Amino acid sequence: MDLILNVCDQYFLTPYVYPSDWAEDWIIRQAISLYFITTIGGGLLYYITATLNYLTVFNHDLEKHPHFLKDQVRLEIRASLEAIPIMSFLTVIAFLFEVRGYSKLYDDINLYGGVGFALFSMVSFLFFTDMGIYWIHRFLHTRYVYKYIHKPHHKWKIASPFASHAFHPIDGFMQSLPYHIYPFVFPLHKLTYLGLFVFVNIWTVSIHDGHCRVPHLLRSVVNGSAHHTDHHVYFDYNYGQFFTLWDKIGKSYRHPSLFEGKAPVDEVKRLLNKKDTKSE
Length: 280
Prior knowledge:
Blueprint: H1 2-17, H2 27-56, H3 72-99, E1 105-106, H4 114-140, H5 143-150, H6 169-185, E2 188-189, H7 190-206, H8 225-234, H9 245-249, H10 264-279
Helix pairs in contact: 2-3, 2-7, 3-6, 4-6
């Protein structure tokens, strides 16, 4: 995150925003800057990605499903935009430690073995965070925690891409913890980290669109939208974020109903066909 902070300082914050006696490395200034960068940047990334997905990928027939709420898209956007500033406040703590040099993020691509290690770290990041999110997600489904923290996200039983960030702020932050823990435990190139940050947000949007794009050979391995759709519908299955490994280990894996012609989109098709038959 220091790469973005440095650019913002150089071209905008130092010349136009802060008093001249506020040093760029002053922790209070860094915290304020990181908060607004995270809130505005995260909000824009969410809204742009979700909007593009909603316009180009999302099957709008799902909006005709009986469990798709009235004005749901507006409610999802509102819930997300209310949660993001609070999640950012919590996230800034991790970013502040990173910026001040306490993590294992590094600049020199050759420091840990070049591009090869950077590619390996991308894969290990996904497996590590998938494991962490699986167990955090299962914890969020325990009776009392679910009721007060995770239930707001399951309000969207038939989700749209805009539901991706429509969390209780503590829920969203807890599920993001593995992303912040990783660079304090394992070396990770800074550009790789930024790329993964963008990817994670895009992926989170994509698994809420109800449209399966995972190649057939990988459908039992990759936890895509088909799997996550069933999580919203049936609640106690498919807790993983990227892979199905931990769901299979934890015996919470459910073969997606989309692959059996029993997904919400199939229910809508049957309902529409019945209406057409009656009208004839």
